[in-house]
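Hi R.,

Here's the chain you asked about this morning:
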Amino acid sequence: MRRRTTRSEGAQAPKGGQPGLLAQLRNPPGGRDARIMLLALSVDRTGSGLWAASSVLYLTFVTHLSAQQIGVLLGVAGVAGIAGSPLAGRLAGRLPVRPLLIGCHLLRLVTLTLVLLCSGFDALLPVVAFTYLGDRAAKTLEMLFATRAAGERRAAYQALSRSAANAGYGVGAGIAAIGLAVGTTDAYRALILGNALSFVVAAALVWRTRELPETTVEVARAQNAPAAAREAATEDANSRRTSSPWRDRGYLRFVLFDIPMNLDDSVLGVGLPLWLVNRTSAPHALVPAFLVINTVLVVVLQLGVSRRAEGPHRAARAVLLYGVLMFVCCASLALATRGGTWAAAAVLLAAAVLVTLAELMRSVSSWELAVLLAPQDARAAYLGVAGMSQSIQKSAGPPLLTGVVMAAGPTGWLVLGTVIAGLAVAQRRACAQRFRTLAPSASDRARTAAPAASE
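And the predicted structure, written out as tokens:
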């Protein structure tokens, strides 16, 4: 019997290949709500691109903070962001996701506006801290929305969200390049105001979506399943309903090793621009180009990478490639100080390409593994804990780079690359062990469902 196509499955591939990016964005997994959320992501990240491309230079030339103060500011603020992910996961288990996400956008609207009124380190610290709190909570809620709207096609939705988000980053970085070229205080402040206004538009778009409980997705998916399979899934869900990620050592081990698997974010946003400004002779106008390169490569390559890294074992193998790419990137940064202006510029641009490729590997592995290793009925709480790895990295990453790695010079980058590569191997082994532990229960459920399926 012919299988009908549903809206939630998204655009179907034409004969002989996959549908194009634009076709999938028009009809993504999750239908109308997913399409609106992808637009909200793009608008949000456009504002974030303005901030990411200009924040370090704004803090340096407008608020006159030193590199060490900037590192401490972003690091301490990141500590507040650590609470954002588990807090959002806990609240999402009790309250609707949509109003929570709108609240996160409005919180960041207020804090980014306050940045315009703050000029000292002490005043900026709590403002940026609340910004990080709202940012991390929003990203966790977006992940929960994706798992509920897209269901088993979450990898395809994740790839589309990455493409839409990075397209927004690219637009924001391009606008930021104009502001940086002007280089006045008013130009820097206009960029921050643009970021704040993006949260207003994003909140309005999220308001247009519908609240989709996770149970609705799972019940709809189970309607066509064999009776025995439905019963086994129900029993398994009930047995794990009270499970806590804080008592799950295997999952906590994954989260622990996932922290260094997010350092590409700090390298791109903090390490590259500060290394360029303070230790090389490359032109300052090159800073926005780092984000432009990152955006273009992610938009072009994310879908293909996601298709080739679906499933637990492929996602775990992607961790190893991440380690290799980060090592080569760090080695390139160590060499950037040895040449002249144009040689340094070329090496730094190559490092931006390498850290972007590493980001592609990380986005696949972190997303897939965080979802697959979490029990379905406790997924909100588990993903909230998994989101802490990014928050902890945002807290520890900037001071690590500015206070340790960059202070040690080129040797610091070489040591960092070696450590990340070694930890990538450890993460791969930890995930393999976790999947071996989960395999017996999965096999038992499959054997339970098999007799009913054959009837």
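Confidence is low (pLDDT under 50) at residues 1-16, 215-242, 441-455.

Let me know if you need anything else.
M.
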